[in-house]
């Protein structure tokens, strides 16, 4: 049990280099676990806790919706009324630096060098919302730098299959939203936002995160890439619990490895439900801990203290389903591997 908890904490908080050094300490436990995981994931993953499904490449995805000219879905995070562009509307990576105006609040949102700044506190000069530790951690420049340089790769210890396989798996779940717009919520340094934009499967991609440094890192990765489809993506800084989008305007929301970092998973899923169109789809991955380990006596208080720091790495699959249902989403379905879960739910029509 102690090993399971250590693995959980390490996979969320430490980059590979650090956990590798711990590995010497836990070698006897980790080595067989890793071997077992990598071979078992190659052949099968657990679906909805019961059945097994193959992870062979999925059939080619058919884009059913016609790719349409992107509509402006941006809304004021204070009042949720539509935002209008001051000057030309630029729905691309180059929109950073543009400004938007809310006719209702009479508030102007000025863009930063790398992203649009659409938090409620945007424009305030003396106040900066400080968030729980799990959110603040990712605002640090060092963590943003390390994220795709070892930190994210480390999630394989918790059963994550790795970004390429995750992308293949989620394409199937995202099918109802293909051809429409997608929000990559809590995108980090944008590893999936960039894949979404390059795949051409969506009419428009919004890479959204609370961390200005993660967004800056995402911007830099984009600038380093030749022929990146910059017209297909915007970077937005916003809080997941106050999304700057019109209600019922979004075809798909993806949240990779993020729910456990959100200050309030239920407030966030409620916001996701608000912005989704009817039949819009929510797909997410996270760490869970259920089954026999969840009865370990010390887990309750540990879980409570972690939650106070804004970290929810010990959620159960049934809690995820419950949150979705409570926020008006239906058709919950999940696939699992170790502590990894990918689940989806949709807005009813
Ligand atoms: C572990 S990273 C996941 C990054 C990426 N989606 C992935 O799949 O690797 C979690 C992200 O959640 C973001 N986050 C934490 N709290 C947030 C909040 N309140 N609103 C928006 N994003 C938040 C962090 O800034 C961080 O980039």
UniProtKB/TrEMBL annotation:
Residues 184-283 form the Methyltransferase type domain. Pfam families: Methyltransf_11. It comes from the Eukaryota. This is Methyltransferase type 11 domain-containing protein. It comes from Hevea brasiliensis.
């Amino acid at each position: 049990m102690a090993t399971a908890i250590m693995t959980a904490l390490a996979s969320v908080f430490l980059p590979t280099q650090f956990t590798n050094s711990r590995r010497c300490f836990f070698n006897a436990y980790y080595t067989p676990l890793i071997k077992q995981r990598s071979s078992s994931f190659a052949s099968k993953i657990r679906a909805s806790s019961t059945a097994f499904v193959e992870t062979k490449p999925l059939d080619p995805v058919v884009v059913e919706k016609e790719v349409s000219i992107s509509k402006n879905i941006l809304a004021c995070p204070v009042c949720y009324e539509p935002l209008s562009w001051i000057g030309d509307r630029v729905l691309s990576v180059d929109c950073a630096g543009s400004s938007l105006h809310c006719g209702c609040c009479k508030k102007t949102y000025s863009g930063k060098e790398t992203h649009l700044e659409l938090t409620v506190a945007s424009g305030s000069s003396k106040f900066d919302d400080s968030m729980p530790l799990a959110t603040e951690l990712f605002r640090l420049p060092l963590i943003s730098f390390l994220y795709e340089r070892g930190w994210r790769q480390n999630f394989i210890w918790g059963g994550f299959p790795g970004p390429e396989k995750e992308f293949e798996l989620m394409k199937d779940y995202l099918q109802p939203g293909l051809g429409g717009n997608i929000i990559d919520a809590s995108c980090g340094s944008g590893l999936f936002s960039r894949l979404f934009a390059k795949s051409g499967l969506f009419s428009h991609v919004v890479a959204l995160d609370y961390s200005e440094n993660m967004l800056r890192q995402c911007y830099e990765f984009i600038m380093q890439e030749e022929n990146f489809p910059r017209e297909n993506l915007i970077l937005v800084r916003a809080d997941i619990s106050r999304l700057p989008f019109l209600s019922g305007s979004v075809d798909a929301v993806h949240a990779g490895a993020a729910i456990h970092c959100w200050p309030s998973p239920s407030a966030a899923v409620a916001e996701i439900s608000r912005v989704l169109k009817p039949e819009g789809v929510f797909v997410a991955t996270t760490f869970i801990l259920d089954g026999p380990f969840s009865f370990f006596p010390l887990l309750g208080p540990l879980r409570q203290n972690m939650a106070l720091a804004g970290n929810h790495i010990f959620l159960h699959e049934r809690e995820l389903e419950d949150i979705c249902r409570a926020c008006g989403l239906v058709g919950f379905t999940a696939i699992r591997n170790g502590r990894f879960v990918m689940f989806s739910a949709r807005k009813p029509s």
